[in-house]
Design a protein that fits this description.
Blueprint lengths: L5 E10 L2 E11 L4 E6 L5 H8 L7 E6 L2 E2 L5 H5 L2 E4 L11 H12 L5 H8 L15 H13 L5 E5 L7 H16 L3 E5 L3 H4 L5 E6 L2 E6 L1 H8 L3 E7 L4 H9 L5 E5 L2 E6 L4 H10 L4 E7 L3 H7 L9
The structure holds adenosine-5'-triphosphate.
Adenosine-5'-triphosphate binds next to strand 2 and helix 1.
Length: 309
Amino acid sequence: MASLPIEVKNVSKRYGDVQAVDGVSLSVERGEMIGLIGHNGAGKSTLFKLMLGLIPATSGAVLVSGVPIDGRDFRAVRRRIGYLPETFVTYDNLTGMEVLRLFADLKQVPRSACDDVLARVGLADAAKRRVRGYSKGMRQRLGFAQVLLGSPDLIFLDEPTNGLDPEGIHDFYQILHEVKAQGATIIITSHILAEIQERVDRLVILNSGRIAAQGTLAQLRAQMVLPSEIRIQLRSGQGSRVHDALASLAGLELKIEQDCVRVSCLPGQKVAVLNILAALADTVHDIAIHEPSLEDLFLGYGGLHGRKN
Ligand SMILES: Nc1ncnc2c1ncn2[C@@H]1O[C@H](COP(=O)(O)OP(=O)(O)OP(=O)(O)O)[C@@H](O)[C@H]1O
């Protein structure tokens, strides 16, 4: 049976008094895209560095493609990994192409691959310009280009869309999904929860060095049972009639603002609310249901309250 791309087995990492990662176990399937989220200081970067073999674990084991990160065979495995650190530092005096050729040499990838990769991230026209004159978004694209060199099997991206404009973010995820379709396994961190919540296969929430929850957005919603918000836009002057009808249902939180009623209700109450609204259809102009976002779930799982620094 082929080895899993990543197996983290009860791993802890301590820096002096700080327990950065605390008993984490995580298995990642081939071709999976994982979103790793957590408050500042939750341990995301430390977990990345452990999985990349850049730092040793205090205890536990990390295997990448079945190979222990502290074993002799890991050097060969590392060549098949692409990594974009949170801050991509490069040589400002070199052109984009020169920087990429340098990475190609380090990764033992033919320099001839650089043209295609630069074009893929939208930097073909800027290839001969010095990086000093690049915008933040262009630098980030260059960082992404070095990740793509050599078509890695396993890709780690730490806050990869920092500095990208909406079009850049769209292009970035489009490339990422193409790479994933070709079989790459991807682990990505982001503080922009709305951005990754629908784009990854599985979310892993880290809180103070531990995995607080993991699953798809739908699974996390089912585990946490947070209220949804139903916003009912009414025809003029119908607010109190609808409000009074809904107030007959126990346990709802209702707010009324002019011709809009907002109902906060648990999943099991939604149908009862909609039944009442159906009976008052002549008063209703529009209905929108807002499910809890990843941000709501994240806050529910400790979110910012777990912040250490
Ligand atoms: N080299 C180090 N020496 C000492 N403490 C460290 C070191 N690296 C990280 N830490 C501490 O370990 C904890 C986890 O840090 P880490 O950078 O992994 O968190 P993070 O989730 O990536 O945070 P952020 O979202 O702010 O980047 C923090 O308390 C941090 O201060």
